[in-house]
Amino acid sequence: MSLSSESGSYISARISEYKMPPLKDMLVMGKDAPIGCIAMKRALDLLVKTPYEHIEVEDDVIGDILIRQSLLRRISKEQLMDFVLTHTKSLLGSDEVLHIELNIDVHLSRIK
Description:
There is one protein chain. It is built from two helices and four strands. By secondary structure, the protein is an alpha+beta fold. The protein has a domain of 75 residues. It has a four-stranded antiparallel sheet with strand order 2-3-1-4, with helices on both faces. The longest helix has 11 residues. The radius of gyration is 20 Å and the shape is elongated.
């Protein structure tokens, strides 16, 4: 019985157009993220016209949030913080940055 061995390389790539802006709705940044919130906000200010707001978070994992200002007209900072701490904290390491796309639906009704 003879044994044969094979070796080789396999490369897989997914290629897409670079999107501007590189951030759509929100970044959640860990306390030990490789780029600080101030540096990231300065970069965004140079790259896009859309204003982003910085929210500082007092937490053991999450350090900062950068969110598109227009979204804060549809949801309060308190609601946003509750959502982030409840649903994304467990997905984030303190040295990571998560890019999050938000869908915020506002339902209005009027009672006479």
